């Protein structure tokens, strides 16, 4: 095989099972590709040596005929998942030297299935951002560049290191987390697949918490089939996360085939927003035609509270973040300031020096909306809006099985283009954030290129715990789009 | 309702976050921009709408009240920025 790193997860799995390649060969190819791609800054921590050791262990199990579902397959892990003995930073100075003494449940599930860890990928600090520019470890560059341009673009966020790593063939697949769009938006602007499962489908244990009622882990992959494979292993009920749900995990890959004849696809009219690129609307219409041509029925639906989703999110998420991030105090772990005069100033300076600007902004918003006198006006009202947003979806799903929408308002933008105005950055998540507020599963599938050669995605939204139907519909979009593009490897000198 | 420098100082105190004097005006302006945008939620009639408490219909699980973990002082204090003999060391709290 010519380039091992260009394989999909499914292809690599089948090649390993057929003993055509070893995990060591495959892992070695990725370790070399990662070293050559350092200009992208996709990884915060490379774990080449451990990866090769894990690959050797996998090869021994394969030789002994004991094969897990992901045996010998090298993956990238967003640096928000705690990995025992390997630095986990959340891309923050405050956790810059943190070495977890425990493993997150999702990653443990992956290692139990035989997977190999290549390293920890970059992200926005504490997953707060939509462009990977708030990372303490510097921005990630999108492997894609516009036609005839040398300008560096953002890879989306917050899972920007993971999206770049998948698009640049620096892993077979990656894990991400999604609080307001952090899996789907970066996948869309890098031309790859990103799936946010239903809230409760994957355990949150050992994932650095941002907004606990919205956070959910999911796969970022090259194909829909790969997402189905990875989700099956990532998902589990877990006694260490009381919100993980005891619903059987089906074999999503087996359920992929079967087509979409008779599937009712809802088109929410409120997702035609001002400011979205014309190409985005055109692609959306094409997506509906693709599904119709394969036997789906297209129905127009209404989600009347859509325009309130982003402001609701920017109350709920910071409120939960301000509470979750209270644990970083410079006492038990993490960064400690040298400026402290007493215990209070130890807290204040450790946090003031340890958190970046966006994280501080959100902690202050959250503290404000939860403070006496403002709680009812902001937080309570937002939680009521959240109920209305969820009801919108329940009503829509009375007449359809999945929803089709754009993934993002436009393609990847230039590094630095939207950092001066927080609101402009927040708008990147306008199509994805509703799904988190309602706890539903959503997936972004690469669907086409803009006139200047940058990828765009389409999003499908499913009913709670119906990832199987969602993936089947996504596979139909994937087949019709026939998106075979990859970025030119300009970073390899 | 607008956020001024004093409000920034007050919530920064509540959040145990040192925001330097030189950053406070800019932070007030940024927060104002965000709160003005959020004001649009006031348009919606939410009377009689219950606040969301759980996004997925589920009952929280019960378990036996028993010790399932512990006795790991080394692991618990391994990352402490100031620590000695399984203690977390902080500046003097009691005179």
Give a verbal description of the structure:
The complex is a heterodimer of chains A (493) and B (95). With 493 residues, chain A is α/β, with parallel strands linked by helices. Among the domains of chain A are: 251 residues, Amidase signature (AS) domain (Amidase signature (AS) enzymes, Alpha-Beta Complex), CATH 3.90.1300.10; 77 residues, no CATH class. Helix content of chain A is 36%, strand content 13%. Chain A has an 11-stranded mixed β-sheet with strand order 1-3-2-4-6-5-10-11-9-7-8. In chain A, β10 and β11 form a beta hairpin. The radius of gyration of chain A is 21 Å and the shape is globular. Chain A starts with 8 loop residues before the first helix and ends in a 12-residue tail after the last helix. The model of chain A has no long low-confidence stretch (mean pLDDT 97). Chain B has a domain of 38 residues. Chain B has a two-stranded antiparallel ribbon. In chain B, β1 and β2 form a beta hairpin. The two termini of chain B are 42 Å apart. Chains A and B meet through α9, α10, α11 and α12 of A and α1, α2 and α3 of B.
């Amino acid at each position: 095989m010519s380039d091992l790193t260009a394989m999909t997860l499914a292809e690599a799995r089948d090649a390993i099972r057929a003993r055509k390649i070893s995990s060591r060969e495959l892992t070695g190819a990725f370790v070399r590709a990662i070293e050559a791609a350092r200009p992208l800054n996709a990884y915060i921590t490379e774990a080449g040596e451990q990866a090769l050791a894990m690959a050797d262990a996998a090869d021994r199990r394969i030789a002994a005929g004991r094969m897990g579902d992901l045996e010998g397959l090298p993956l990238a892990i967003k640096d928000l998942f705690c990995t025992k003995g390997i630095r986990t930073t959340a891309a923050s100075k405050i956790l810059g030297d943190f070495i977890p003494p425990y493993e997150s449940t999702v990653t443990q599930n992956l290692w139990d299935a035989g997977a190999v860890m290549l390293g920890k990928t970059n992200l926005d600090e504490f997953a707060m951002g939509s462009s990977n520019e708030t990372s303490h470890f510097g921005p990630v560059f999108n492997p894609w560049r516009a036609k005839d341009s040398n300008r560096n673009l953002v890879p989306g966020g917050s899972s920007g290191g993971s999206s770049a790593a998948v698009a640049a063939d620096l892993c077979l697949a990656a894990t991400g987390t999604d609080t307001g769009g952090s899996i789907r938006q970066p996948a869309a602007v890098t031309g790859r697949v990103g799936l946010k499962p239903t809230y409760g489908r994957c355990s949150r244990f050992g994932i650095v918490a941002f907004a606990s009622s919205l956070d959910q882990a999911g796969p970022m992959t090259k194909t829909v089939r790969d997402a189905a494979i990875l989700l099956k292993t990532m998902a589990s009920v877990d006694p260490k996360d009381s919100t993980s749900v005891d619903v059987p995990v089906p074999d999503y890959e087996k359920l992929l085939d079967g087509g979409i004849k008779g599937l009712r696809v809802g088109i929410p009219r409120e997702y035609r927003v001002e400011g979205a690129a014309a190409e985005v609307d055109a692609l959306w219409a094409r997506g509906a035609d693709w599904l119709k041509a394969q036997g789906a029925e297209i129905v127009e639906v209404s989600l009347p509270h859509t325009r309130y989703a982003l402001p609701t999110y920017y109350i709920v998420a910071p409120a939960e973040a301000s509470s979750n991030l209270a644990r970083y105090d410079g006492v038990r772990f993490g960064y400690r300031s040298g400026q402290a005069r007493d215990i209070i100033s130890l807290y204040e300076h450790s946090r003031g020096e340890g958190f970046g600007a966006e994280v501080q902004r959100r902690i202050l918003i959250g503290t404000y909306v939860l403070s006496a006198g403002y709680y009812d006006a902001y937080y309570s009202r937002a939680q009521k809006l959240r109920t209305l947003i969820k009801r919108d979806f329940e009503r829509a799903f009375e007449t359809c099985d999945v929803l089709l929408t754009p993934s993002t308002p436009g393609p990847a933008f230039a590094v630095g283009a939207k950092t001066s105005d927080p609101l402009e950055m927040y708008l990147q998540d306008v199509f994805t954030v509703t799904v988190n507020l309602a706890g539903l599963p959503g997936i972004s599938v690469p669907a086409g290129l803009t006139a200047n050669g940058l990828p765009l995605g389409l999003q499908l939204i499913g009913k709670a715990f119906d990832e199987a139907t969602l993936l089947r519909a996504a596979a139909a979009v994937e087949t019709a789009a026939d998106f075979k593009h990859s970025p030119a490897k300009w970073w390899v000198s | 309702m607008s956020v001024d420098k004093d409000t920034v100082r007050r919530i920064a105190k509540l959040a145990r976050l040192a925001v330097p004097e030189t950053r406070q005006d800019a932070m007030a302006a940024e927060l104002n921009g965000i709160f003005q945008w959020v004001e649009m939620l006031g348009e919606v009639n939410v009377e009689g709408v219950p606040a969301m408490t759980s996004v997925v219909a589920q009952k929280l699980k019960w378990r036996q009240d028993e010790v399932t973990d512990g006795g790991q002082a080394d692991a618990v204090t391994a990352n402490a920025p100031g620590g000695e003999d399984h203690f977390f060391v902080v500046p003097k709290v009691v005179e």
